[in-house]
Amino acid sequence: MDLNDQDWQDEQRRVDMVTGKVAVRKKALEADVGVVRGDVVELRKDFWDEVRVNFSSSDDLGETSTSLRQQSQVLSERERAHLQASETLKKLKLLVDSPYFGRIDFTEEGQPRTEQIYLGIASFLDDDQETFLVYDWRAPVSSLYYDGAPGPASYETPGGEISGRMELKRQFVIRDGRIKVMFDTGVTIGDELLQQVLSHSSDSQMKSIVATIQKEQNAVIRNDKSRMLVVQGAAGSGKTSAALQRVAYLLYKYRETLKADQVLLFSPNPMFNSYVSTVLPELGEENMLQTTFQAYLEHRLGREFDLEDVFSQMEAILKAEEGPWLQAKRASIAYKSSPHFLETIQRYKERLEHRGMKFKPVRFKGRLIVSEQAMEEKFYGFDQGVRLANRVELLKDWLLKELAQFAKQERKEPWVDEQIQLLDPDEYQKAYTRMRRKQGAKNATFDDFELERSLLAKMVVNEWLKPVRKWIKRTRFVDVKAMYEELFLNEELFLEVSEGKLPDEWDEIGKQTVLTIREGKLSYEDVTPYLYLQDLLKGFQVNNVIRHVFIDEVQDYSPFQLEYVKRIFPRARMTALGDLNQGIYAHTDVLGGSLESLKKLYGEEHTEVISLTRSYRSTHEIVDFTRSMMPGGESIVPFNRHGEKPVLRKVNGREELHQHIVQKIKELKNEGYEHTAIICKTAEESEFVYESLKEELPLKKIAKTTPSFVTGTLVIPSYLAKGVEFDAVVIYDASSDAYDRESERKLFYTACTRAMHQLCMFSLGEPSRFIRDIDPAKYTLET
Ligand SMILES: Nc1ncnc2c1ncn2[C@@H]1O[C@H](COP(=O)(O)OP(=O)(O)OP(=O)(O)O)[C@@H](O)[C@H]1O
Question: Transmembrane stretches, by residue range (predicted)?
Answer without folding.
Answer: none
